[in-house]
Amino acid sequence: MARVRHRFATAVAAAVVVTLAAPMPAEADDGKRRKRSRRFKDETDPATGYVDPRARKLPRTHRFRLGLEAFYMRLTRARGNDGSTQQFHLAPLGIDAAYQAQFLKYMMARLSLAFAINAANTFAAMPYHIHPKLHLGYQGKLVGVAIGYGYFTPLYYLIDQVDPVRGGLPEPVVRNNHHIDGELSFTTRDYHGALSFIFRVSAVHSTLDHLNRRAEKGWRPMFTLNVGWFFGETERGRKRRLAREAAREQRKKARQKRRRRR
Fold first, then answer.
1. Residue 202 dihedral angles phi and psi, to the nearest 5°
2. Residue 75 φ/ψ, nearest 5 degrees
3. Stretch 81-107: mean pLDDT, rounded?
4. Residue ranges per structural domain of the chain
């Protein structure tokens, strides 16, 4: 009887050892991975420099942006001696360089400067434009809304110039263009840089010269599309930011300790 009990106990112990030594099922392993992924999701540790690229973060305090900008404005219509008419447009396309500052957590200010070439049928009269702008508004993790002021004018112009290649009727000139606009923007996650899209609707006050209309002032609508890239921070900038965040966290913990002592 004692021998039977000893054999039974040995068999039970062997079964327990085999069960513990057996590999975990794939489903249980996947479950643990999912739990670990959820635990570390959207975490950023300033002390170690760990950054989760899936997490959306508020924009950095200082950012530089380079974009491709195109804006459109409809101008006057001219009638020739033979009764034909021609509608003129202004559509500069160029490079836009900007600096954007983030403050008060969700507020932003952006200063930009664009150099553009006129791609419409008024190129002979106004080939090149310079376009500084200033915008102020809300900038979140994804969407931004702003209002702004801008000024653009041709670097040089020729009133009533006829295109020497395409011909046509004398072309108009619009100069000293001041505009106010509303802006809607979308920005991707900031990870080694971010892609942004900007759409603006503007009211432009211009001085027009065309045929018998000289120095005529008036308002016109303008539409702008801008696609650009916010450059990511450098290695030195990242280290400085992590040091600032670590110091801020230490100050926060020190304040909490002082409150507990009180």
1. -125, 155
2. -110, -150
3. 94
4. 62-231
232, burial (CB in 10 Å: exposed 0-12, middle 13-18, buried 19+) = middle
- State residue 192's pLDDT score: 80
Q: What is the number of alpha carbons within 13 Å of residue 231 lying toward its C-beta?
A: 14
Among the listed residues 88, 111, 93, the one whose alpha carbon sits nearest the alpha carbon of residue 209: 88
**What mean pLDDT, rounded, does the chain reach?**
85
DSSP calls for 58-85: PPPSEEEEEEEEEEEEEEEEEE-TTS-E
Which among 203, 207, 202, 221 has a CA at the least distance from the CA of 157? 207
Predicted pLDDT at 41: 45
Highest average pLDDT, of 52-61, 236-245, 253-262, comes from 253-262
Does the structural domain 62-231 have CATH classification 3.90.650.10? Answer: no
